[in-house]
Amino acid sequence: MNKKIYAGLMSLGIATTFWACGSGDIVKFDLEGSDGIMIVQTDPEDITGLATSAITRESCPECFVGAVVSSSSVAPKPRSSSSIFIPTFSSVVQQSSSSFEINLSSSSSFIYDPGSSSSRPPYKEVSSSSVAPSNTGGGTCAPLEPIVDQGKPVVWKYTVGGIVKTTDMLSAQLKWSTPGGSPEALDGKGAKFMSDTVLYATSGQHTATLILATSKGSFSINCDPVQVNGAKITGCKCTSASKSVDFTATPDVSWSVSGCTTGAGLTLSYEWDGVPGDTSYTKNFTAANEGYVPKLMVKNNDNTVIEVKTCPAVKITDGPEYQITTTQGAGAIDLPKGTSAVVVNVNNDGYVFCKIDRVKANSSTGAFSGTINKVPISGQDYKEVQVIAGGIPVGTTLMFDIDVPLTCGVR
Are 137 and 117 in contact (CB under 8 A)? Predict the structure, then answer.
C-alpha cells in the first residue's frame, strides 16, 4: 500500500498545524487559510519515485478536522506507530537568498519559493525525473501497420523491453508526441496509454516520440516511422520470363512490372531490392537459390508507397536443370552421367523409367545403375521404378545420380 507524507513549513521552523489523515499520513494545515495542502506520494517499493499533487477541503474534508498545533520546527512524535509515518530527512533545510530546499532523499527534494503567487503552497519538485531521459533500454514503439492509406487511423504502440517490465506499466507515466497528427499529443498514466491512435491529414512519412517515466527510470523513445499514402497506386503486375536458371551458364535473371496506374498528373517511380530503377530489373547470381523473389516498391509524387507482391520466384541452380513436360517416350529426356535435377511438370502415375543407348553410353552390356531421389534404378537396357506412390506432384524436383548417360521419363 502506498504511503503519503504531508510535509511543509514545519521544516522551516514556522508554527505549523498537523493532522493524522488515515494510516501512514501526516498532514500540514495552511495557516494562511488556503484550501491547498502539498502532498508527497511515494511508492513503498521505490522511495525515489516521488510525485507531487494537491489535496483540498473538497477532495479530503476529513484532513481539515481535529488540528493539533505545534510551534516546534520538528514534527511531534506520533502517539501510535500505526497512525502516522515520519520520513527520514537526509538534510533538513538548505537556504539561499530566495528559497529554502527540503531534501527528502539523495535523489529528490522540494524547494520552497516565497515568490510564488499561486494559492497552492509554493513548492517545486527537483528530482531524478528532471534529468534528461535515456533513449535506450526502455523498450520500443512503432505503428501497428507501417503503411496506411490517408484517412485511416494510425495506431502507435509501445512494447516493453530493456529494464522495463509489463508490471512497471501499471504506474508508468506515458507522454506521446505525434507531430502533424490529430491529436498531436497524449499524456496519461497506466497500461491503457501504451497505444495512441492518431489521424493524419497529410500524406507522407510521419514520426512519433514517447516519453516514458517508470520506477526504473525515464526514457525518450523514438518510434519507427509510418508511411501515410496519398493517391492510390493500382494495377501493378510483376512477371519474369524465367522459372529456373543455371547461374553457371546464365547468371542474369530479369523481372519487369507493368500496368501501374495512379492519380491524374502524378508520376511513378520504382525501387527494386532497395535500389531506384525503372520498370525492369536484372539481378546477377553467383550461388544457387531455391526461389528468389525481388522486393519491388512503387511510389508516386503524392507520397504514396506500395509493395508489389506479385513477382514470381525464380529457382537458381548450380548446373543444368531438366524438365519433363509429357509422359511416356515423348517426354523422355537425355541425362548425362552424374547428378542432375529434373522437374516433373506433367501429371503422372509416379513411375520413372530409364533406358540406355549402348552406342552413346559406350556399353556392350547395356548395364546401368544409380538412384532417383535415393530410390535404386539399376538394370540392363531398360528399367522403371515407382518413386512416389499415387503420382509425382507437378513441380516436384527429382535428383538423378546415374553412372552412365541415360534417357529417362515418367509414365
Answer: no
Q: What is the DSSP-derived secondary structure letter of residue 115? A: T
Q: Report in angstroms the alpha-carbon separations of 396 from 289, 324, 347, 383, 388.
A: 16, 10, 11, 21, 11
Report the alpha-carbon distance of residue 252 to residue 219 in Å, rounded: 49
pLDDT in tens, 299-332: 999 999 999 999 999 989 887 788 899 998 888 9
Cα–Cα distance measured from residue 364 to residue 358, given in angstroms and rounded to the nearest whole number? 6
Residue found by looking up cell 519474369 in the block = 240
Fold match, 140-229 / 321-410: no
pTM of the predicted model, to two decimals?
0.49
**Domain range list for the chain:** 3-130, 140-229, 237-317, 321-410
Superfamily of domain 140-229: Immunoglobulins (2.60.40.10)
How big is the chain by its Cα radius of gyration, in Å? 39
The order of strands in the sheet holding 46-55 is 3-5, 37-43, 46-55
Polymer length in residues for the chain: 411
Residue 91: C-alpha distances to residues 23, 95, 129 (Å): 25, 11, 20
SS3 for 60-106 is CHHHHCCCEEECCCCCCCCCCCCCCCCCCCCEEEEECCCCEEEEEEC
CA angle 128, 118, 71 (to 5 degrees): 85
Give the pLDDT of residue 184.
Answer: 97
Paired residues of 352 in beta bridges: 385, 410
The C-alpha cell at 20 is 493524522
Counting beta carbons within 10 angstroms of the beta carbon of residue 172, is it exposed (0 to 12), middle (13 to 18) or buried (19 or more)? buried
Q: What letter does residue 395 receive in the DSSP assignment? A: T
Q: Which residue has the higher pLDDT, 340 or 15?
A: 340
CA atoms within 13 A on the CB side of 386: 5
Query: For 330-368, what is each residue's pLDDT tens digit?
Result: 889 999 998 888 989 999 999 999 999 999 899 999 999
Q: Between β-strands 268-272 and 275-277, what pairing exists: parallel, antiparallel or unpaired?
A: antiparallel
For the domain with range 321-410, which CATH number is right: 3.40.50, 2.60.120, 3.40.1350, 2.40.40?
2.60.120
